[in-house]
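Changelog-adjacent note: as of this version, every example in the card shows the full chain rather than a window. The one below runs 119 residues end to end.
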Amino acid sequence: QAQLMESGGGSVQAGGSLRLSCTASGTAFSLTDNVMGWYRRVLPGKRRELVAVMSSSGNTNYGDSVKGRFTVSRDNAKNTVDLAMNNLKPEDTAVYYCSLVDRSTANFWGQGTQVTVSS
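Full-length structure tokens:
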């Protein structure tokens, strides 16, 4: 089991930057050898889409629309994952969710944090 607590987000103008942070807590099983990262939901009722994830070993995967602008990083000792978002665009406006997938492929989610980019 894992619980995820997000921070950051807010409103920014196009071209600006924001940083999201997520701290995980829970069982040792879920907190080791996992994949942590970020998804977003652009509109209510739509499927969450991949933003960026990183495994415990450092492998990363980014959504096509954020490559070159967003950077995911994590601190395994602190069970945290961050998302640095640069050159933000209005189409990045969404609710961003922290995600953790453990070795049993159980998927845990944070409560979500709003990011709004104005033109």
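Structural remarks: The first helix runs from residue 28 to 31.
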